[in-house]
Every structure is written in C-alpha cells, then in structure tokens.
C-alpha cells in the first residue's frame, strides 16, 4: 500500500467517524425535542386540570355561597347585619370573578372546544377590555393545526401581549397569525418602550427564554426585533406541516 493509499484510507475512516458523530447529534437533538414536548404536554394537562377544578369546584362553591347570602339578605335583619351581608356578597362575587378569570387564563375551554381562532379572538378581546390597550388581531388560517401547535400559538400570543402591556407599556399591539400547509407565522408588534433582546432572552426575561425553548421543541424559530422607545416585534416561524 502506498503512502497516498494510507492517507486516503485514513481520511475515509475520519469521514465515517464524523458522519457517525453527526448522526448521534441529530438523534440526540430529536430526543431532546421530543422530551421537551412531553414535559410541556404534561404542564398543559396540569393547567387544564387545575382550571377545571377552579371553575367547577371552587366556582360552584362560591356560586352557592352567593345564593345563600342573597337569600339571607332578604330576611328581616338589622341595618348593621344587612350592611355586613352586602359587603360579604360583594367579596364573594369578586372572588368568583377572579376565580373564573384565573381559570380561563390557565387553560381557556374555548381553545379545546372551538379551536385556535375563537380562542385568540376571546383572548385579545378580554385583554383589550381589561388592560385598555388597542389590540388588533389578523388571522389567515388556510391550514388546520394540530392540538399541540394550536396551544403553542395561543401561549406565544398570550405571553407576548402580556409582556407588551405589563413591561413595555404598549398602547397599540398588532397580532398576526398565518397558517399555510408548509408555513406557520405568528407576529406580535407593539409600540412600547422596547427591550434589550439579550436581557429579554436571559433568566430574567419575563418568560421569553422559556417561550423560545418551546418554539425550538417544535423545530421552529423565535425572533425578537426591538430598540429603545421603538417598540418590539416578536416573530415565530415554523416550517413544514403541523
């Protein structure tokens, strides 16, 4: 065997090793994504369970308490007790309202019962009314998404709009969702005070890093474009069928 043959054989062996390492890395990435999706699915199932317990359990108890207080308030009692009953009724009604709100935000039934578009319309309407922000929603859903991807889109929009209002002090927010057979795009643009993207994706980044991890588990990309006092744009892209 000539020297040239030995070198060629060594290069072939090295190439085989590199290909094997690349295959192992690809396999490892696939397993990590699969594991991340399973963990996230368990979290969503737990959210759904707690949301139903709050709505059907605590919510019904509070409704029964309100009915009992209303009946008691009709009995002849002193003005002092009447005022106490009115105060208790107000507290119970506020507790019921807060419980239902937390239940819906944890896992809105409309997402499971009617799908993504009605859930996004509900979310933007509720946040527009409660937060006094101008939130517009544009959807073009030409391709039906599977249940997990619908949940991913809902959480990305929910987290982004919440951050825009709570942390960026945005007054105008535009949400766009486009679903085609080979492309899914979600874009949230606001006119807030902007953010440092490196800090936003760090451990104190208001949940954006976790959102980026979730998108990566689906094989997608989450991009943030922002500058001080020039608002922010958060865009999620998933290629292929979902």
TrEMBL record:
The keyword Transcription does not apply. It catalyses: ATP + protein L-histidine = ADP + protein N-phospho-L-histidine. The keyword 4Fe-4S applies. Its EC number is 2.7.13.3. It comes from Kangiella marina. PROSITE patterns: HIS_KIN. Keywords: 4Fe-4S, Cytoplasm, Iron, Iron-sulfur, Kinase, Metal-binding, Transferase, Two-component regulatory system. Its main location: cytoplasm. Member of the two-component regulatory system NreB/NreC involved in the control of dissimilatory nitrate/nitrite reduction in response to oxygen. NreB functions as a direct oxygen sensor histidine kinase which is autophosphorylated, in the absence of oxygen, probably at the conserved histidine residue, and transfers its phosphate group probably to a conserved aspartate residue of NreC. NreB/NreC activates the expression of the nitrate (narGHJI) and nitrite (nir) reductase operons, as well as the putative nitrate transporter gene narT. Residues 49-242 form the Histidine kinase domain. This is Oxygen sensor histidine kinase NreB. Its cofactor is [4Fe-4S] cluster. InterPro entries: HATPase_C_sf, HATPase_dom, His_kinase_dom, Sensor_HK_TwoCompSys, Sig_transdc_His_kin-like_C, Sig_transdc_His_kin_sub3_dim/P. It comes from the Bacteria. It is found in: Cytoplasm.
């Amino acid at each position: 065997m000539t020297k040239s043959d030995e070198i060629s054989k060594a290069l072939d062996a090295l190439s085989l090793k590199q290909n094997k390492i690349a295959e192992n890395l690809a396999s490892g990435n696939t397993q990590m994504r699969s594991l991340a999706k399973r963990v996230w699915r368990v979290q969503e199932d737990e959210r759904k369970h707690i949301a139903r317990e709050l709505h059907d359990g605590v919510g019904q108890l509070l409704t029964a308490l309100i009915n009992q207080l209303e009946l008691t308030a009709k009995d002849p009692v002193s003005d002092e007790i009447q005022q106490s009953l009115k105060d208790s009724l107000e507290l119970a009604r506020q507790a019921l309202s807060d419980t239902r709100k937390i239940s819906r935000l944890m896992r809105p039934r409309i997402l499971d019962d009617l799908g993504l578009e009605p859930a996004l319309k509900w979310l933007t309407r509720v946040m527009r009314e409660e937060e006094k922000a101008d939130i517009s929603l544009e959807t073009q859903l030409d391709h039906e998404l599977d249940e997990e991807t619908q949940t991913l889109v809902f959480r990305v929009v929910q987290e982004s709009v919440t951050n825009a209002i709570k942390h960026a002090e945005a007054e105008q927010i535009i949400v766009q969702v486009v679903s085609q057979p080979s492309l899914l795009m979600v874009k949230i643009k606001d006119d807030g005070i902007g953010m440092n993207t490196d800090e936003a994706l760090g451990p104190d980044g208001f949940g954006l890093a976790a959102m980026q991890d979730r998108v990566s588990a689906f094989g997608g990309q989450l991009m943030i474009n922002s500058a001080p006092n020039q608002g922010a744009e958060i865009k999620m892209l998933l290629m292929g069928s979902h």
